[in-house]
């Protein structure tokens, strides 16, 4: 008797969740010869999640649902699809995949939604295809896809150096509570870095120094939200404000509503406000809504884990 390989049942699916992130600190150095900036950053993964559902297919295809899904590319420009193809090439698998993205992380919001999708797609396809790759090999593929993708795999709180992709876990205690003012207009990360360069033209930009974040690391270790709020830092904030001056409003609203600290998230335009408690995060979110300074508001807690399989069926 000859055994023929059995094609996976169509209902075989793997469901993976990956978090968005904020940069508690983002220190930006001068551009190198390729135009990339050395960074020293402290990432925190927060409980705003992307979900990626992978099912077998002969081709590589992608569908999207959730807020702002209409502006997400479904072609090869989508980082999740690129992640799936990269993994297939790496392990020499002659198969496609259908990826369905359920988006919740703001698009082009400075919270690494695309990177979360890429990390989730790597984990989902790795499980679907039973590649047997180790975590380290997945992290290597993640780094090839984008500098925020390794952190989306790892999650929790971590210090990032290089282009943000070299990670060291950070010790934290307890939970921190956040409210976010989301703008649908988005900001291009590349444009924000160009504006950073323009604003610093003719001025010395020092190499980013992780020592500058010692007080922030102490606040995290102590679980001291008040101390953390006082030292949130983003070198890209002035560039984001220069491109989108309307962002001063959500920053001011959060301060008036008693936020412990408020900062533009990554390259913006999402504004992240640190709250005293879960209840206070809801108060901050209500203040954003009442003032009409956000297209959407979110509350979340951090840190949370990185990309994880939440269910899989055979
Ligand atoms: P980062 O903080 O890493 O710079 P971001 O959160 O500001 O990223 P993303 O939502 O990741 O921004 O997407 C930026 C752009 O990338 C989008 O405007 C879109 O054109 C493209 N893109 C590619 N793949 C995706 C994806 N899976 N989800 C959303 N946008 C994607």
Q: What percent of residues are in strands? A: 25-35%
Under the CATH scheme, which architecture of the largest domain would be assigned? 2-Layer Sandwich
Oligomer: single chain
| Number of discrete helical segments | 10
Based on secondary structure, the structural category is alpha+beta
Report on the biggest sheet: 8 strands, mixed
Approximate shape: globular
Distance between the termini: 25 Å
State the domain count: 2
Kindly describe this structure.
- The protein has helices spanning 79-91, 113-128, 135-145, 149-154, 189-199, 214-222, 225-231, 237-243, 248-256, 278-291; strands at 13-31, 37-57, 60-65, 96-102, 157-161, 166-169, 176-182, 233-234, 261-264, 271-275, 296-302, 308-313.
- With 314 residues, the protein is α+β, with helices and mostly antiparallel strands.
- It has two domains: 13-170, Ribosomal Protein S5, domain 2 (2-Layer Sandwich); 176-302, 2-Layer Sandwich (Alpha-Beta Plaits).
- Strands 1, 2, 3, 4, 5, 6, 8 and 12 form an eight-stranded mixed sheet that branches. Strands 9-10-7-11 form a four-stranded antiparallel sheet.
- Helix 1 runs parallel beside helix 2, helix 1 (79-91) packs across helix 3 (135-145) and helix 2 (113-128) packs across helix 3 (135-145).
- The radius of gyration is 20 Å and the shape is globular.
- Bound molecules: adenosine-5'-triphosphate (ATP).
